[in-house]
C-alpha cells in the first residue's frame, strides 16, 4: 500500500481564518462482519510533531504507539461507538454517521470539523468533508488511529468470550478463516445479522 503523509493544508487554511479548535473525525469497522462501528474525533494543537497518517498504512505496533501519543498531546479526544444491534436496526451507513456524530458530540468545544469522506447530518458545528481525508489532514489521521485502536482493543477482548472465532486475529473482518469459523459454529451475538457471511 502506497504511504501518503498528510500535509494539513485545510487545517492550516482554517487557522488563517482565526479558527483554533479544529477536530478531525473518522470511523473504523464499517466493512467488518462482526463487532461495532467506532469513530474518533481529535483536536490537535498547532505545531504538534505527531507522525500520524492513515491508520490502514500503519502496523499494529505503530498504531498503538501513536494512540498513546495522540492522547498525550491532543487538546481533546472523543469516541463514538455503535454496537451490532443498532447497526442491524438502522443499516451500516447511518451507523457510520451516528458513530461519528457521537464522537464529535463528545468534544465540548469545536470551531470546525474536518470529516473523512462525508458530512455528518446531525451536527450543527461547521464542517468540511474531505475525500481520503485521513491521507491529507493530521487531525483526521489521528481520529482514524483512535477509532481503529479502540475498535481493535474491543475485538481483542471479545476474543476471550468467543475464542472459536479468533477475533483477536482478524478483528471481525471477513477473512476466510473467520468465514469458515462462522460456517462451523454459526453466528455469535457480535455478528451483524444484516451482513451476508458466505465462504
Commentary on this structure:
By secondary structure, the chain is of the alpha/beta class. It has a single domain, classed as Ribonuclease H-like superfamily/Ribonuclease H (Nucleotidyltransferase, domain 5, 2-Layer Sandwich), CATH 3.30.420. Helix content is 41%, strand content 15%. The protein is built from seven helices and five strands. Strand 1 and strand 2 form a beta hairpin. The two termini are 26 Å apart. The model has no long low-confidence stretch (mean pLDDT 96).
Describe how the helices and strands are arranged.
Elements: H1 9-16, E1 22-28, E2 37-43, H2 60-73, E3 76-82, H3 84-90, H4 92-105, E4 112-116, E5 127-130, H5 138-161, H6 167-170, H7 176-185
Parallel strand pairs: 1-4, 4-5
Antiparallel strand pairs: 1-2, 2-3
Helix pairs in contact: 2-5, 3-4
Give the percentage of residues in beta strands.
15-25%
- Shape, per Cα inertia axes: globular
What's the number of helices? 7
Domain module count: 1
Number of strands: 5
Major β-sheet strand ordering: 3-2-1-4-5
- Which architecture would the CATH scheme give at its second level? 2-Layer Sandwich
| Quaternary assembly | single chain
State the name of the first-level CATH class. Answer: Alpha Beta
Kindly name the structural category: alpha/beta
Largest sheet entry: 5 strands, mixed
Uncertain residue ranges: none
Q: Mean pLDDT, as a whole number?
A: 96
The CATH superfamily label reads Ribonuclease H-like superfamily/Ribonuclease H
Could you tell me the radius of gyration in angstroms? Answer: 17 Å
CATH topology value = Nucleotidyltransferase, domain 5
